[in-house]
Amino acid sequence: MRKLPLLFVLAALAVLLIIIKSDLNAFDDYRQKRQRMVENDIRGRGIKDKRVLDAMSRIERHLFVDKGLMHRAYEDNPLPIDEGQTISQPYVVALMTEALRLKPTDRVLEIGTGSGYQAAVLAEIASEVYTIEIRKKLVEKSENLLKSLGYRNIKVKHADGYFGWEEHGPFDAIIVTASANHIPPPLIRQLKEGGSLIIPLGSTVYFQTLTLATKKKGELDVLQMTSVAFVPMTGEVQKKK
Ligand code: SAH
Predict the structure, then answer these.
(1) DSSP codes joined into one string, 71-123
(2) Is the CB of 176 inside a 6 Å radius of any atom of ligand 1?
(3) Angle 50-58/3-36 helices, nearest 10 degrees?
(4) Substitution candidate for ligand 1 out of 177, 187, 198, 237 with most atoms within 8 A of CB
């Protein structure tokens, strides 16, 4: 009679150890995949900014996608998230972040929170991140995730990002992660002198031109970087030409 509970306890302990070990293995597996992603797809393709590389080495991208896609989280392509939207390709996240040349004291505005991954990358590098998402379900999900990961310097708002976030502006940098056929004028107004705004510009849903605009003496200095494919920005932007 006395032996039975002891055996039971030992068996339970063994099961517990197996579970912990398999969790640790999965953790190591993700870490390895993440290091490989940073080396091959980010650094290997010309991204040099150490703070971008470090942030992307640290952030667990697999937590920003659904369980069924976690094993693909470190592949070099965008992945579907809820509501028919996408989490951007890691290389494009790195390219856009590097282009903004962020300083640790910068305050950044993001339009298109989506999964929250890009916001997390920005929050590791800059001091404050304000991010706007038009779809309520994505606002709730990303806000909860970012909170659970301990990001206190990210504020998420449910709104049409076309109008920016006036009360927290002007911003040192603005990143738009949905495509538009023009730069929303409120965003230009909310960009500081010397600050940069990056946006996929174009009128098709298949590809756009990643465009970097820097404010110099009140005017925009525009640099076209490369072709990209983003989901379209919806709301006010689609009413205007
Ligand atoms: N940055 C995201 C990916 C963005 S996908 C990430 O790291 O996961 C583009 C997002 O922009 C979608 O979630 C979409 O709902 C949102 N979006 C589209 N139009 C918008 C608008 N007018 N204002 C705010 N968000 C918008």
Answers:
(1) GGTTSSS-EE-GGG-EEPPHHHHHHHHHHTT--TT-EEEEE--TTSHHHHHHH
(2) no
(3) 150
(4) 177
Query: What's the 34 CA to ligand 1 centre distance in angstroms?
Result: 24
In angstroms, how far apart are the furthest CA atoms of the chain? 86
CB of 86 sitting under 6 A from ligand 1: yes
162 lines ligand 1 (CB under 6 A): yes
The residues that are catalytic are 88
Residue 58 host element (H or E): helix 50-58
CA angle 71, 72, 76 (to 5 degrees): 150
- Which position has the token pair 């306890």? 9
Is the predicted pLDDT of residue 205 greater than 80, yes or no?
A: no
pLDDT in tens, 143-200: 999 999 999 999 999 999 999 999 999 999 999 999 999 999 999 999 999 999 999 9
Comparing CA positions, the residue from 146, 106, 147, 109 lying closest to residue 127 is: 106
Residue with CA at minimum distance from ligand 1 atom 19: 233
Please name each of the domains of the chain with its CATH number: 78-240 (3.40.50.150)
- Of ligand 1's listed atoms, the one at least distance from the Cα of 237 is 22
The structure tokens 């099961």 sit at 15
Tell me the one-letter amino acid at 149. L
